[in-house]
Amino acid sequence: MTTPVSTQPQGRFSLIDHHGRRVTDEDFRGKFLMVFFGFTHCRQICPAVLRRNTEALDLLGQAARRIRPLYVSVDPERDTPEVMRAFLTSSYPHHTGLTGTPSEVEAAKAAYRVFARRGSDLDEYDVPHTSFTYLMGPDGTYLAHYPDTLSPDELAARVRGRLATPGAPSGPVAATASTASSRGRCCG
């Protein structure tokens, strides 16, 4: 008898935050996590999603205090803690940047079922990757994921609903998450 493998993100990681501290998913227990994977050299989708996520958090008002937004790099060779800190503090100060060794980032990507592949041009390469924002519960369980096409208002409304009923089924958008279907449209 085989045990079924979950297709939902498991949310486990051990990475370095943008202050140079080692953190794991356990360090964030008690908070909802809004997790987005990207890279600081992205010119289009990543800044748009980070801006959208920031605006959605602003729309949530006091409820946003229950959420920790994380920006996980898919480009650890360029996104050092120092680069992440400079990038986030200037435009997205609510977010905590996470990076690590290539193998640590690969493990985090696998835990969230994130697709990312580095391009071949070493000077100005892109990193096509999944562009979903994941919502994890205070206990670390997957609750939902949201496409980059949602407006700040739509995202805020959906997250507000999840904050009110964190254990409820995540609905049709989140039910479609899988490695094959979660490639998103970022950067490639």
TrEMBL record:
Disulfide bonds: 42-46
Keyword hit for Disulfide bond: yes
UniProt keyword list: Copper, Disulfide bond, Metal-binding
This protein's name: Copper-binding protein
CDD domains from the UniProt entry: SCO
Residue ranges of domain Thioredoxin in the record: 4-164
GO molecular function: metal ion binding
Binding-site positions, Cu cation: 42, 46, 129
PROSITE patterns: THIOREDOXIN_2
InterPro entries, sorted: SCO1/SenC, Thioredoxin-like_sf, Thioredoxin_domain
Family: Belongs to the SCO1/2 family.
Region (Disordered): 165-188
Gene3D superfamilies membership: Glutaredoxin
Disulfide bond recorded as keyword: yes
